[in-house]
Specification:
The structure is a homodimer. By secondary structure, the first copy, chain A, is mostly helical. Chain A is built from seven helices and three strands. Chain A starts with 9 loop residues before the first helix and ends with a helix. The model of chain A has no long low-confidence stretch (mean pLDDT 94). At the A-B interface, α1, α2, α3, α4 and α6 of A face α1, α2, α3, α4 and α6 of B. The first copy, chain A, binds a DNA duplex through α2 and α5.
Chain lengths: 150, 150
Amino acid sequence: MNRAPHPTPARLRALPSWVINQTATAANRLTDRALAGTSSRRQFAILSALDEYGPSSQADLGRCTGIDRSDVVTGVTTMVERGFLRQRPDAADGRRNIVTLTPEGKEHLERLGALIADAQDELLRALSPAESKMMLDLLRRVVADDQDAT
Amino acid sequence: MNRAPHPTPARLRALPSWVINQTATAANRLTDRALAGTSSRRQFAILSALDEYGPSSQADLGRCTGIDRSDVVTGVTTMVERGFLRQRPDAADGRRNIVTLTPEGKEHLERLGALIADAQDELLRALSPAESKMMLDLLRRVVADDQDAT
DNA sequence: CACCAATGATGGTGCCACCAACAATACACC
DNA sequence: GGTGTATTGTTGGTGGCACCATCATTGGTG
């Protein structure tokens, strides 16, 4: 029998926000599976920021990654418990907690990076490198414009 | 003072899945604001499918929209309560509930469609129509390939 | 008839984005 | 110098989405 199932409704297929969401869902499925049992995407973002910018306050981490301050807290504390980060009060500013990447954290970051890289290849399998670059450039322009508008 | 805040870490900016997620977040912020107080994106998807394919079983609705059966249930029941959908058992198959779009539902769909269309324009403001089309075509290929792989 | 598949439904999980409020601290201005 | 404003870390909570397991009912197949 195997009657052909209906395809995605045209109204949805034509909707940019819907297409983007479908892609994001696929990307998250792949990366979450790749990261299963290690860390969340959010934690990877925090590690990446600390690796690039060195010891930072939690507020700064939140700003450069787009993660809410309150969500940074939970990510940081669980990674402190796992030995990937260290926290110390800022001598110059009593409000700030300076977060530092430990060697174990750096190692962990590299592990996660490799796992995520594989997921990216799987995700973009259908596109040539040039096409991938073009798509990402366009997406980045959309994101940048949205941040300007805000 | 106003020291420049750190930009997004290069590791993240270079990550396709991260860029896609940022775009999806922006898209959802815009569409959710546009739809505030009316319906969810999921409900719009269900309405779109019913409008295009006519009365359908809930399982079919789930399949063509990519929404889980269990999530279709809640969307359908709330829209039945609001008078946008009607449910009747399938005479030919005792398991199926045939869902039908009411005239009020069709009206509601058109209202939502207009609201969402505005949000799309806002989202893609930075791109020319040709660029938007190119981006969406590439995204659709990624999604299609992912569905093949599954 | 026995077995397997599909359907609607219920309940639950986890991740993410976002918001409100608060105490402590820093800073700018008069 | 004291007052008001802003920032920071933190707690707690909300809502949406994707997904999973399970169940009783029903269809279809061998």
